[in-house]
Amino acid sequence: MFELDHDLAQDIVDRTMAILPHNVNVMDSQGLILGSGEPERINTRHEGAQLVLANGRVVEIDGQTAKHLKGVQPGINLPLLHDGRLIGVLGITGEPEGLRTYAELVRMTAEMLVSHRHQQAEQQWRRQRCDDLLALLLAESGDSPRLVDEAQQLGLKPQMARTPYLFELGPGQSAEALSAWLTSRYPDSWCVSSAQYSLLWCRPAAVPVDNPRLLEKLEGLGWSILRVAVGGQADGLAGLRRCYRRVGDLLAYGRDVLPQSRLLTLNRYRLPVMLWRHRNDDALDELLNPLRKVLAKDGNGQLLATLRSWCEHDGQSQACADALGIHRNSLRYRMERIAELSGVDPLTLDGMLALYLGVQLLPQPLSE
What we know:
Layout: H1 6-17, E1 24-27, E2 33-36, H2 47-55, E3 59-61, H3 63-66, E4 75-82, E5 85-93, H4 100-137, H5 145-153, E6 162-169, H6 175-185, E7 190-195, E8 198-204, H7 211-220, E9 225-230, H8 236-257, E10 263-265, H9 266-276, H10 283-296, H11 302-312, H12 317-324, H13 328-342, H14 349-360
Helix pairs in contact: 4-5, 8-9, 10-14, 11-12, 11-14, 12-13
C-alpha cells in the first residue's frame, strides 16, 4: 500500500511553490504535515487537514475561521487521492477566494507526482524481486514450485532454454550497466551479479550470438571485459544450474591456465576443465608424471611448444610442422624425443590423449 513520505511531500511543495506565490503544505493520512514551505511546521498536526480526512472533501478556511483552529492558517485544503484512496491532504495558504481558480490544477499536479513516484517504487520493487528470484532459482533449491510459479507470474519464463555466459570485468566496470545493456538488446535474458566484477548472463538459446563480435562490440562501447566463459544450451532450470557451475569452473580455468584467452567456450575445454576441478587430487599426479619427465629435460621449452602444437592440430603432422615453421623430419625427431622422455607414445590415441590432458592443465606463460 503506497503512502506519502517526507521526500515526496517536500518535492510536491517545492515544485508547487516554484510557481505559486503562496505557502503549500502536504499532510499525510493522519493530518501530520510532511512537507511545507514553512519548515518549522513540519511534523505538526494540521486541523484543517483532519477536517478533510474526516469528511473526504475540500475544506476552505477563511481568516475568521482560522482563528478558531489550532495550527491552521487561511487557505484551501484538498484531499489527495491515489487509485481512489485518500492518502493525504494538500493545503494552499491564502484567502480561499483568490485560490479557487488554480487549486484543482495544483491538486491534479500533486496527484500526478504521487502516481509517478508510485510507478517508480513498483518498478524498483519488481527489479529487486526479479533479481532475488533469479538468484534463488539458480541456487540448489531453485525448483520450489512456489518460486517457479512466482517467476512465471513476473514474466521471467523459467523453463526457457538458455545459454549462460559468465563475464569477468575489469576494475571500475559496472556489472549493473552491462546487465542493462544486455537485457535491453536480448529480451528474456537473465542477468545476475554475484560479485563486484562478475556478471552471469543467460541469453535465450534460440537467439544466435556471434561471440567474438559481441566482445568487440562491448569493447567498442568502453567495457573492459577481461574474459568471458560461454556454456552450452541448458534446457530447464536444473540444466541451467549445472551449466552455471561449469562456466564458473571454465572462467577460473581460463584465468589460471589460459590468461591470454578472453573468450572461452565449454565445448572447447569441457574435458580439461573437468579435470582442472580436481587439480589438487593425488590421482592427477599419474596423469601429469609423463609430462613432468619431458619438462625436466626441456630447458628451452621447445618440446612443450611442439606438444602444444601437436595437440592443437589434432596430430596432423604437416599442419603441425607448418605452424612451428619446421620440416616434418624435425617434427618427427621431436615427437620421438617426447615419447622417449615421457614413456608415452604421442602417435597413439591413448598416448596423445594422456599428453593432451596434461598440457591442458599447464598454465600458459603470458609471453606465448
